[in-house]
Design goal:
Helices cover 80% and strands 0% of the residues. By secondary structure, it is mainly alpha-helical.
Length: 132
């Protein structure tokens, strides 16, 4: 079994933590929708379903990074950009308890994916790319 660099593992862990945060937000959204506190019932349901879908996507990207799959690099970077933008939006809205962790995780995730050891594995031209 080939060992992957710690930076790649760190990037996968960041995505798992982000998936957990989105899961918590999805549960809270579902609870608010069920209690009638969403703008409209249909929008609350749609937001909750989309949030659970995002959890599944983030978990799949984390699994791809953990297995050093080349396809996972671009979605991981895009996820970090989206989470970073969301973190900035939350900070602008005064939600420091959600915005600060989101922004810190996004920066950490970007740094971990862009780290030279991670990039070396994710862009390698060797034997591993033929199976991916």
């Amino acid at each position: 079994m080939r060992r992957h660099p710690p930076t790649l593992l760190a990037a996968a862990i960041v995505l798992v933590i982000e998936a957990a945060g989105v899961f918590i937000a999805a549960v809270l959204s579902g609870m608010d929708t069920a209690a009638g506190r969403s703008y409209q019932l249909s929008s609350g349901v749609a937001l909750t379903v989309l949030a659970f879908f995002a959890v599944a996507v983030l978990a799949a990207i984390a699994a791809g990074l953990g297995a050093a799959k080349r396809w996972s690099r671009t979605p991981a970077l895009l996820a970090q950009l989206f989470i970073g933008i969301t973190g900035i939006t939350l900070l602008q809205g005064g939600r420091l308890e959600w915005g600060v962790p989101a922004l810190l995780l996004a920066v950490t995730g970007l740094a971990a994916v862009f780290a030279p050891p991670s990039m070396a594995v994710l862009v390698s031209k060797g034997r591993a790319t033929a199976r991916q």
